[in-house]
Amino acid sequence: MTLEVPSSLPRTRRTAEHKVFQNEFIAVYNDDVLIAGAFPAQFLRIVEREGKPGAAVLARCRGQYALVLNDRYPTGDWEWGIPRGFAHSGDPEHTAREELAEELGGLPRELVPLGIVTPNSGLLAARVHLYLAEFDAEVAAPVDSAEIAMVRWIGLPELYAEIVDGRITDAFTLSALTQATARGLLG
Prior knowledge:
Strand 5 (54-61) and strand 6 (64-72) form a beta hairpin. Strands 5, 6, 7, 8, 9, 10 and 11 form a seven-stranded mixed beta sheet that branches. Strands 1, 2, 3 and 4 form a four-stranded antiparallel beta sheet that branches. The chain is 18% helix and 39% strand. The chain folds into two domains: 13-49, no CATH class; 52-182, Nucleoside Triphosphate Pyrophosphohydrolase. The protein is built from three helices and eleven strands; from the N terminus they run E-E-E-E-E-E-E-E-H-E-E-E-H-H.
């Protein structure tokens, strides 16, 4: 059985678009909408990089997985997670390769698409493409040390233990692991 959405369900639709903020990364809108096609309301919507897709990459080298440490200002915490980033172009694979070069300091031998995640579909108009990258060597030479504080390569049991213990909470890491597991790619 597949999860299908009946075409007869009423949709929320935009009646007016109001851009309230924009910088090089995002545009914020406070749109007038009709919920279920009938009830007037306003909805905040954040569009990243003009709607171009970002990328997040589960990097693997001989059974070890790369994590990068970032100081995440919005949450006020250090966060371990997989390499990821805003769109570098309209091509998510190009973005994935650029992020790996920037955050790990190298390029993979192979890049396998895993799927797409919508990180917060109640607020963000973003789709992020997920990939599994196969490396021949455990590279750990970030180009921008102001963005990436550290790189660690760890085994899958340790990665799962970090998740269970609540030390890895990054949604992209959890999503990429779920996609790779569902596709039978983690062995």
